[in-house]
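Database export, one record per block. Field names are fixed; values are copied verbatim from the stored entry.
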Amino acid sequence: MSVILLVIEQDENQMKYLPVIRKNTNLGFSEIKKRIGNGSPIMECNLFKDDEDDAKLKKLINELINVGAKIRLFDGELVKNKEVSVEYLMNRFDRYEEIQKQNEMLDDLMYGED
């Protein structure tokens, strides 16, 4: 399983997205500012371990993009060759959901529906 790290690039519009981050992560404003300032992740998510965490990450990414935040996503480590695009991550989410649906259909076929 992958751990996705969400990093926000520092810019002059910070006040626009601080409330979004706080609402979705429960971090305090000073902690959020500190993490943005030193390039630390504002959120880490173990993909596909907990559907709720996956949904929170997707929601946070979409809300941040909508308010104009510049986000960077990393797969496991904060190194350049581990950076992934938003499109890549969303495709992974979509594919995972497709596989889950296929598995449910197979289970229904094999074991019958109640």
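Remark 1: The mean pLDDT is 90.
Remark 2: Residues 74 and 83 are 4 Å apart (CA to CA).
End of record.
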